[in-house]
Amino acid sequence: MTIKVRKLSDEYTPTGSKIVRNQNVPVTFDDLKAAVTINNNGNNKVKRVTAPTVDTSVAGEKVINAMVTYIDDTNAPVTIPLEVKDITAPTIQTPSDRQNWDLIALDNTLPGMRVISVDNTGGTGIKSTIVSGLPEFLVLDKRI
């Protein structure tokens, strides 16, 4: 009599659900395991879910190629979607020279002043920059 034992990796199929992380927040092994669903109520058959270190320094959509290890030590690959959110607002750099704008305004000789918007490294970029609240004697020139 021959008894053939089926591997759990042949019986069950893992599926990955999306993980959402803020930029620079790591994805843990617990996060990976929680994101994996096994068909036929097979979640209790999972020993661990592993993946190479996941880079969350750049915002955007990514894919994590992970490996499910079942309790019989067989493995199955699984793809887990990852969304990294950019939660750091861009900053406006102020001019470094000619800081005393009120005194210069009295002379009516205003030098040019650039407004520069800077996003964090790996951020999603700057969609637009709005300049508001300028004193009456300053005029915004959008050509610069």
Regions with pLDDT < 50 over 5+ consecutive residues? none
| Outline | rod-shaped
Query: What is the residue-averaged pLDDT?
Result: 82
Structural class: alpha+beta
- The multimeric state of the shown protein is single chain
Percent of residues in helices comes to: 10-25%
Radius of gyration (Å)? 27 Å
Largest sheet descriptor: 4 strands, mixed
**With helices defined by DSSP (H or I, 4 residues minimum), what is the helix count?**
3
Q: How are helices and strands ordered from N to C?
A: HEEHEEEEEHE
Instruction: Provide the β-strand percentage band.
Output: 25-35%
Number of E-type strands = 8
Sheet with the most strands: spatial strand order: 2-6-5-4
Structure in words:
- The protein has about 140 residues and is of the alpha+beta class.
- It is built from three helices and eight strands, in the order αββαβββββαβ.
- It has a four-stranded mixed beta sheet, with helices on one face. A two-stranded antiparallel ribbon has the order 1-3.
- About 10% of the residues are buried.
- The mean pLDDT is about 80.
